[in-house]
Amino acid sequence: MTALAATPKIVDDERNDIAHLVGDIERLEMIFDGWEDNARGAARAYGLAIEALNGEALRRLVSALKRDPAALAAMKAAVTDDVVYAVMRRHGLVKPSLTERVETALEGIRPMLASHGGNVELVGVEPPAIEVRFTGSCDGCPASALTFHAGVKKAVEEACPEITEIHQVKGMASAATGGESVRFISPFALSSGGSWQYATKIADIPQGGIKSMELDGEKILLSRQGSIVTCFQNACAHLGLALDDGEVRDGIITCPYHGFRYDLSSGECLTAPAVQLLPHAVRVVGTRVEVRLQK
Prior knowledge:
Layout: H1 2-6, H2 18-33, H3 37-65, H4 69-78, H5 82-90, H6 98-114, E1 118-126, E2 129-136, H7 144-159, E3 165-168, E4 182-184, H8 187-190, E5 197-201, E6 210-215, E7 218-225, E8 228-233, E9 247-249, E10 252-254, E11 261-263, E12 281-285, E13 288-292
Parallel strand pairs: 2-3
Antiparallel strand pairs: 1-2, 4-12, 5-13, 6-7, 7-8, 9-10, 10-11, 12-13
C-alpha cells in the first residue's frame, strides 16, 4: 500500500507535457527498484507486455497507412517529430536517421580523442554533406588533418556511404603559451609504443617539401607546411617503394614509380583511397622535431 500511495498522479493537463511524462516514468522506476525481486520482476514484465502490445498495434497501423500514398506521406512527416521518431525507433518501425548514424560513427572514435583531451562535434547535416568541428586539444592541433582523414572521415564514410562531402569547420584554437611549444600528432599515431627520438631541426625540412632520412633503422619521410610537421614511413602503400624522389606539389607527393598520389598532411592515398601511408607520431619542441616510431 505504501508503494501504491507513492505512485505519482498524472494530472489531465499534464498528459501532453513530455517532461512530466518522462519524470513520471523515472519516479515509477525508482519505486520499482525498491521492491523485492519477485515484485520488481512482475512489474517490469507487465511493462514489457504492454510495450509489446503497443508495438504490435503500431506495426499494424504503419502497415495499413503504407497502402495509401497520402497517408504514407503524412506518416513520414509525422516521424520528423522527435517524440514520434523516438517511439517508432524504439519499436524498430523506422531506420536510424542520417544524423543518428553520423553521431554513432563519431561516438566510435570519441574515446580515442577524449584520451588526449579532445573531441569532435557534429555541426550540421545537409546531404550529401556534413560539417564537423574539433574541440579541446584537437582544435588547432597541427595534426588535426591526420585525425580528420584517419578517424572522422573514415568512420563517417563507412557508416554513411551517402555522405560524400565532410567539411571540417575551424574552431577557436587555444592561445599559444610562452616558452618551448610542444605539438603532438594525431592520437591515432600516438597509440604506438616507444620513446621520442630526435630527428632533425624544423628548419631543415623544406617549407612545402619533404626530408627523407633513416631513424633507428626505419626509413621515414618528414614534410612541413608552416609549423605543421608530419612523418610517414618512406614506402608507397602500393609496392613499398621509396617516395623521396617523387614530385611534391601543393602538399601532394607522387610516387616516382607508378604514380600513386598521397596527401602529405594525412597520408591519404588519392589514387586508391582504401590504402594510406603508415604514419609515425611527431612532436615539435621549440625548433626540434622528434619522432616516435610505430613498429
